[in-house]
Amino acid sequence: MTPWIQKLHKWVGLIIGLQFVIWAASGLVMSLLDTATVNNQHHLAPAAQALPWPEAEISPAVIVARESRPVQMVETHWLAAEPVYRLSDGVSSWLADIRDGSSVPVTAADVAAIAARDYVGDGRPASPELMQENTWEVRGHTGPIWRVAFSDDDATTLYVSGQDGTILERRNDTWRLFDFVMMLHFMDYTRQQDFNNPLIVMAGAGGLWLALSGIWLFFASFRLGEFIPARWRPRRELTVYGADGGKLRSVESHSGDTVYLALGRNGLQLPSNCGGGQSCGLCVVRVRGHAPPPSSADRMHIDATRLRSGYRLACNLPVTSDGQIEVAGGAALWTERVATVVSATAVTPFLREFVLAPEVPLGPEFQPGAYLQVHVPGYRLQRNDLDHPELHRQDWSSLSLPENLVCKEPVRRSYSLSLPVEKAGGNVTLLARFSPGRQGKKQQPAGKGSTYLYSLKPGDRVCFSGPFGDFAIKPGAKEKVFIGGGAGMAPLRAMVHSLLESGAEERIHFWYGARNMREAPYVEEMEALARKHANFTWHLVLSEAAEHGAGLIRGLVHEATDEGLLQNHPDLKSCEFYLCGPPAMLAATRSLLARLGIAEEQVAYDDFKI
Ligand SMILES: Cc1cc2nc3c(=O)[nH]c(=O)nc-3n(C[C@H](O)[C@H](O)[C@H](O)COP(=O)(O)OP(=O)(O)OC[C@H]3O[C@@H](n4cnc5c(N)ncnc54)[C@H](O)[C@@H]3O)c2cc1C
Ligand code: FES
After folding, report:
1. Which end of the chain is more exposed for a tag (fewer CB within 10 A), N or C?
2. For residue 1, is pLDDT > 60?
3. 551 C-alpha to center of ligand 1: Å?
4. Nearest CA to ligand 1 atom 7
């Protein structure tokens, strides 16, 4: 449950967090404003001495009897200094002369006198203006309204009822500011000051959920042991074995550490792209003996069969007692290798091939399908340090990259071998895609690892460790189907070369998807291999409609493979599948294969998570 709560917590937190900032800031502004000023008390004249009510010449009962409208209430009233009756039908009110009962209109002169009696200050009133349409400053009032603006510093404005001459509102700039921040505070953008509006209810519920999920995540992501200094915690011994069962070494750890941390402290850096964040799934180890129940992060990255065999994410595996674990990388985990860059060749605008000559010859464990962890040092680069050939100038100039590209701390990134080591004369060949960061309005920093690789020039030194991974060609001569896209070309290309070089005679199909011809790497190389080896076929699938030329397959690679090969294949059960590409392509292809009834054991894949 934790990973999706983490994601949701992050996004809800962003939205509610913004609202919290608005709530806090608007609440602060409201509390700093002087209430008397907001209510315009400083421009309010003291109440005038009540005038004696004159002898009425006509009684209210007679007036009511003469009225054509129903009258609910009659009361004595002063229109400026003029005594009148105010009559009301419950909805609106009007004035009647106390001498003859005739209707008394509220004139501009009356309004000017009313405003002058109400106001103290330096401002001079403008001529009263009968409003054509009521504005938000007099929301809540109906009927005709007069407006009198004063020329003081606060822009005082009085609103007088056109029905009975009463002052409805006293507004000024401080009130206007107060009213604006109150709108933000209540999230009531209709300015009705409604506490029950749906937005505020949603934000309140979201805030409560955020607090509760935060408490959950706090307890889920911290272990009690982490609050106690390592030296006060009991010592434990972790014995590390290679995947072949050979003992590698024993390391000392403290109860409460994660296996990832314990090994790291002892110089054994497990493969990781997320630095122990439980999101890359690369730090998998196998617990010998009794493994703890799998967590949700374990279940997300490790399939059910491997979970049953005791595989767990090391960054989520606490050390509680002396224990034994198996690491797939074996002794390679301790080995840091150094290589010199031989060449960096732009294969497509954003796929670059790097050939690295290692200082010490590589062993047979560097097999197609394996990946290395390139040690990316902390760096500060200029945009110009990322070179590209003239023919890719337009592609690069359309990227929005900052002038300075910074990686504050060293990180490690995984890159697959893209050619068998023997075919590359003992060198390491990598194919790396440049991650420009999210472009457009939502700018995100360019990828740390790919930026570093793209700054490399021949002669530069690079450190790496490995090889790692269990993506490999299975023994036997079953018909093989390779399906890939993007940088997924790398391990698939290495595997295809390896098979054909070793004289494999089974049928081998390679279906590769790109958006357009410009973004498709090694097309000529694959066509040449297909011409040379009768058992190898190469199919390039392009998703952009404009690229639909003669002989090119258009569409999505998994659909094209389905139509062109799988639907009419006589015996899919005797095939092996090797997949590598962007997450969406990988997911779509895996679910297609599952729909076709192809067993999980027939499918091998590498998930780059990019
Ligand atoms: C087993 C394996 C094999 C692989 N093989 C290859 C290979 O052969 N070729 C290849 O090209 N790749 C390969 N990868 C992927 C590679 O390891 C990297 O993940 C990839 O190059 C991106 O790393 P990066 O350091 O450039 O980007 P990162 O810095 O890790 O960033 C990843 C993405 O997140 C974005 N981002 C960065 N910071 C933020 C932020 N603060 N908020 C939001 N987004 C952000 C970046 O723009 C980028 O798009 C492989 C991965 C695995 C697991
Ligand atoms: S280090 Fe990435 S999941 Fe463990």
Report:
1. N
2. no
3. 34
4. 415
